[in-house]
TrEMBL record:
This protein's record includes keyword Cell wall biogenesis/degradation: no
Name of protein: Alkaline phosphatase D family protein
Record organism: Actinokineospora soli
UniProt-listed CDD domains: MPP_PhoD
A molecular function GO annotation: alkaline phosphatase activity
Amino acid sequence: MAAGGPHPDALLLLGDQVYADETSRATQEWIAARRDIHQPPGGQVANFAEYVHLYREAWSSPPVRWLLSTVPTAMIFDDHDLHDDWNTSAAWRADAARTSWWAERERGGLVAYWLYQHIGNLSPAELAEDETYRAVTSATGDAAPVLREFAERAVEEIDGRKATRWSYRRDFGPVRLLAIDTRCGRILNEPRGMIGDAEFDWLETNAEGDYQHLLVGSSLPWLMPHAISHVQSMNEAACRKPGLRGRVAEWFRRKLDLEHWPAFRTSSDRLARLIRRAADSGATVCVLSGDVHHVYVAEALFPEPTEAKVYQLTCSPIHNQERLMRPLFALAWWKPLAHLLRWWMLRSPEIEPLPVDWVKRHGPDFGNTIATLTLDGASATLLLEEAEGDPDEPGLSPMEPIPLA
Ligand SMILES: [Fe+2]
């Protein structure tokens, strides 16, 4: 978000800031000097101390330190901050819980996230009211037990609720950011939710107000390539079936990562209603996401046109180099396939009609890209810049700016 100066007003990092499950060779050597990496979880991060090493490695290079020290930064985690496909489903959690190492990894990961990412998201006023922050800063001895207890509560799902909230709100003048935790806050037992109802109530309350632009930060995109979106919704319905059909659907859910917003249709539809209300009150709404290994801009189209425009802006800064990714995502945006899958999906009596349609306005791009959103009065412009040159002399190649509003 840049506004009129050489420095952006804020930097938003939308997930997978560190990879606990895919560590560098240097980190693996560091771990191997301390414990037996022939025992699970091998060269992956196992505990808080190893997370400290991971963050130090990720954020110690001079350009990154300079960036984080000069630009106000907000962040939200995604799966790899803890583990690939973290909290995909209740069955995934049950399997993780059976391993010897998951509980320690998850607690350590959340304590590290609280320290290295979460408290930087909150304003001084919010921190002053935050019970955990107060307990940590006023502790006379080691505050680790306070944070461990907090992490214990954060993962518990009781009656469709989580006891803690990682989602947060930031206001930048007439611009409001609502960052949604789409990982730890998931409700995995039926009725499933991307976040619990109480957290959604908080989100809706905080979406009210007087602002010109609403930014919804969600590591996982809300509007996806159509084919992937429809398959996810169909898979969610199939996973609810008893017996073999449900188990096969669950296998596909995990194998193909069918766990974005469309795989939580009730939540996705509730988010659509929140967004429509904001757009009807005249605020441009941009849902900002990463995660899916490519870059695109989609415009949401509601049955009744909204007062202001609504966009999904997705930018994965470092895209996955797997060869299969490009044709897969290009195919997923292919209209005939989208129409066929939509028709198939809506044959199911368990799947509600879509409350919103969307069209791709840009992309898909597959370069390593950063996105800058410039909000000036009522206008909104997106600039995508692709990395070029060799790693020793990197540069950025700007694309044609995309006017949004
Ligand atoms: Fe991710």
